[in-house]
Amino acid sequence: MEHDGRTGEPDKRAFRRELLGVRNRLTADDVRVAGRALAERALELPELARGRTVAAYVSVGSEPGTAALMDALRARGVRVLLPALLPDNDLDWGEYAGPDSLARVRHGGKMALFEPSGPRLGPDAVTDADVVLLPGLAVDARGMRLGRGGGSYDRVLARLERAGARPRLVVLLYDTEVVARVPAEAHDKPVHAVVTPSGVRRFPQG
């Protein structure tokens, strides 16, 4: 998929629609198979293999599946943090203790999310993570990530920067979502690596 890389929110919106349209054509089997492959590839990352705390997220709909990866990390003794959406679109965090520790939560008219049902640890808990797994729709050759546009992870990245925390930033995508260029703005931060079902790609800062 090519893109001309013009900056600006209208351009981001159009690109998001295009990418979501492709995802929405995937079957449940496509998503499940990709999720298993994604977990295998992600566990090849040394940062995940030796990480003590990983901030992850529960995939929804046609997002690349994260369930197999979360369970594999937990089986290795990794502490897995999962986000809980706050009313202002910021993220609180809770610990993943297996599939039974998730609750389905609907936020207003938005898509229902699966969130940790245990104690909330506060928005700053993410600063303890060795690796932060980021959702996204695309990443380009510079490591610039295109998110969904809600701004939640922009807040997370800003919080990490303010705290002087430097976890490895890894985005999870389908193979076709690694593109030539995505629209980026001055505040956007590059990631260190992308994991897709076919492998891992690192970027200059990774």
Short structural summary:
This protein has helices spanning 9-23, 28-42, 46-50, 67-75, 152-163, and strands at residues 53-55, 79-85, 91-95, 102-105, 113-116, 131-134, 138-139, 145-146, 168-172, 193-196, 199-202. With 206 residues, the chain is of the alpha/beta class.
Give a structural overview.
It is a single chain. This protein has 206 residues and is of the alpha/beta class. 27% of the residues lie in helices and 21% in strands. It is built from five helices and eleven strands; from the N terminus they run H-H-H-E-H-E-E-E-E-E-E-E-H-E-E-E. It has helices at residues 9-23, 28-42, 46-50, 67-75, 152-163; strands at residues 53-55, 79-85, 91-95, 102-105, 113-116, 131-134, 138-139, 145-146, 168-172, 193-196, 199-202. The strands form three sheets. A seven-stranded mixed β-sheet has the order 3-2-1-6-9-10-11. Helix 4 links the parallel strand 1 (53-55) and strand 2. Helix 2 packs parallel to helix 4 (67-75). The longest helix has 15 residues, at 9-23. The radius of gyration is 16 Å and the shape is globular. It starts with 8 loop residues before the first helix and ends with a strand.
